[in-house]
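Predict both folds.
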Amino acid sequence: MVPPTGDGGSPAPIDRPILEFLQTRLQATRQVSEAVITDASGHLGLQVVFASSYYPAPVDDATLTVRWYTNDDFTIHYREVHSEHTWECRWDRHPNPHNTRDHFHPPPTAPTPGDDDSWPTDHRDVLRLVLDEIEDRIAVLWDD
């Protein structure tokens, strides 16, 4: 298998039906103000904007970007923009030279290399894991 290009992608094509499923699922929640499949910079993905009311005032913007590939590789990037800094992390499954296929780029800066990890095989289970971790992060923000 060929390593991905510098965009953190996969050698496989994007799985649009999975992106559409995730889009429908996320649009049905109060926490999401927008979930749109985009082709930004030639990279097809799901762009999710979380509702500002879901976050305390210090968070200016919170987004989730999902790219899911037909071979079940993925990259899921969570990002919060605060007035004076950005807080982000990323869950990945793809071949690369810096980690095992499944890995996590931890907050607050999502550095590379990340931490080797293991993710569920089903996209629904991966989404649940990611959303649970985001919920934990939001709880911390409200407690601060």
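Second protein follows, with its predicted structure tokens after the sequence.
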Amino acid sequence: MRAARIVLVVVGVLVMAFGAYVLVTTVRPARIWGLATWLLGAVVLHDAVLSPFVVGAGLLLRRTGRRLGAGVLVVVQTAVVLGCVLALVVLPEIAAKHHGQKNPTVLPFDYTTRLLVVEGVLLAVVVVALVVGVVRARRRTAPLVASTTNG
């Protein structure tokens, strides 16, 4: 286990060093600060918005975990993570399209509609998973044989 951690740390450091080398050799110095600002904003957005939301949703779902199956919880958590990450990736395109661009072929699609459609599909998957989970939970709690009285 210790050897695997050391290998992972060394590989991580090498990848970061390679990324820094590529950054310095391919990006103009005037653009590095804009990139650094964007990366800092992404970290803050991840730590301040995405992570607490996913953890909170996970905690709420775990409370229902005794009644719903683990598969339902996995589907819901996966949909929450995918929806959040997709929104983080697509929102800059939506903002860039809103502000306008010099070349209209750079952002040719309606990203707002596409994001809403995909998020709606994820929501539908979550609703179906929850309904299936609730139906299965009710079937499990119902007695298999009706109680009878001998009297």
